[in-house]
């Protein structure tokens, strides 16, 4: 009586169906089957039924909907956890006396994957992903993941997987020995048959009972070093390595207890708190209640205008997102180079086996390059990425307006320019939106979706929906110079320049901010991106500069010396071999002279002051953006800085950081900065940082 369903017992979030003598335990907790308290209770009850019912020989645990269990319920993590906790559920599986098979489809992450590791076997549908992403949330797997995974894959591989939070596709997980099978057709039936087979063999296959595979000490050492380096010494990464080490040194029950203790300690520590905040801020960023009920326009073909660095990256991103892509440039040589960049990208991915030949062919088939403007008529959406010059962009938008079909979405990738002035060059400003990608556009997830004065709601909705299809993390920004990210970054860099003038040198500022956790200090970043573009921009805006604002001319002086950064072998640093940077006495001379010319007596600035002032400048600018409505929510600002500007994720973002200081201290800080930096710093706005 295969697949016959007899008797359905429903518990909160979990129901049991019978497939003959096998209990099929189905977790049903939409939207992603998080292992919430009521689900854990339901599972323990279901396992009690399995143990007691002599008509049942084993069980299958599976998820309803689109996933197995996508993880724990993060909202619970900020408070005391309710019983039964996950280790208790897994102990109930291991102690029930009958084989239990996990049938995985969709996502099996975190606590969900740990639950599966507590079962006797794991079968998965082909598109399943498994992984332990806990360290990305500042914690470690706390329900046996660090003890059971190494028993299946060895210590070195477990370190790699746990410390990176990597998501492993089913086929690869099967090769690693994490899965017992990948099932193309009826996963539930296969899992029931597997449970019956194990029951007939009369033995359990608990992972906890397996010996640890013999490890290669050099491989473990290498994996440890690589994980610490990549994890920038974060406490969770170090704890994960220590916990996995216990699998080799400590009896499993004691090791499980120690893993749990470490998990509990990390869970309430500041890093985990900040990482959870960032997780929720990212989830909320794309939510636009004002767009409820607004339908996005259908988009199939995207034309990318400008085949430079950004244009070719955007084309790759759109091809990966499943769109048909037309790349267009006015200059045939630039077009040929851009086209080749796209094709080279796919050949190298195919070469590194990161793309199957079929997938590569599909993408290349959907790709065309042309200098013929009239082909813009084929596009549902045009993304402009030509030179950053208002007159050029306006001319380009005039041409687009004359050719594009009615209703096509017209997007600009401008970094700083006035979107309304660009939209004003067309007869359809309602169709114009900003899509500000970050470089490299096919790698960076952040995307600022800029709403102009006339942007229609369905045009904005289309920008957001396209971002989602591109796998991006969209944040809506209002139209203002530099939008959210570049505007805050400019305020941060300006404050760092003030500090140069007052007594610090580039290497001190950079190392203080790198010690805070930035991937790179601001002057190393400036050298990498080049000092000349900003120099040109400053010169073109010189006449409109606020005479009351403090202006530091050190970067101008460096540019006058031909020091444009890395590309010229010198900028804030010297690059003798073209790669490694070194502090340069000549730069110190330029800086000393700049201070002297303003009568500033240089003083020593310590790391704490450097960090605090740089971050406060960001927080102040964040408050300004909120006051002006350029950013809708404080969390949006933190998402932008963390995902686009190397702000350390475990510090939450500049607004989160400022909130941790508290209002009173922040008010005093702002007075201090106002005294040093002139207009623009105001204690009156800081309450906006608490919004939302
Ligand atoms: P790029 O100089 O590498 O490429 C610009 C391309 O546009 C060139 O191939 C050029 O031939 C083409 N072009 C210029 N005028 C044109 C016209 N009238 N018609 C058709 N094609 C034309 O520049 P990049 O770096 O790719 O930047 C493009 C845009 O992206 C700019 O608005 C820039 O501000 C923005 N952006 C750049 C970022 C970066 O990191 N480079 C980051 C985010 C945005």
Keywords:
692 residues, alpha/beta, 2-enoyl-CoA Hydratase, Chain A, domain 1, Rossmann fold, N-(1-d-carboxylethyl)-l-norvaline Dehydrogenase, domain 2, 3 domains, 8-stranded mixed beta sheet, 18 strands, 47% helix, disordered N terminus, binds 1,4-dihydronicotinamide adenine dinucleotide
Topology:
Elements: E1 9-11, E2 14-19, E3 22-27, H1 37-52, E4 58-63, H2 86-94, E5 100-104, E6 107-109, H3 111-117, E7 121-124, E8 129-131, H4 145-153, H5 155-164, E9 167-169, H6 170-176, E10 181-182, H7 187-201, H8 217-230, H9 235-249, H10 252-267, H11 270-285, E11 301-305, H12 309-320, E12 324-328, H13 332-351, H14 357-365, E13 367-370, E14 381-384, H15 390-403, E15 409-412, H16 419-423, E16 432-437, E17 446-451, H17 457-469, E18 473-478, H18 485-502, H19 506-516, H20 522-529, H21 532-540, H22 554-560, H23 585-597, H24 607-627, H25 634-644, H26 654-661, H27 663-677
Parallel strand pairs: 3-4, 4-5, 5-7, 6-8, 7-10, 11-12, 11-14, 12-13, 14-15, 15-16, 17-18
Antiparallel strand pairs: 1-2, 2-3, 8-9, 16-17
Bound molecules: 1,4-dihydronicotinamide adenine dinucleotide.
The site of 1,4-dihydronicotinamide adenine dinucleotide has 23 residues, from helix 12 and helix 15.
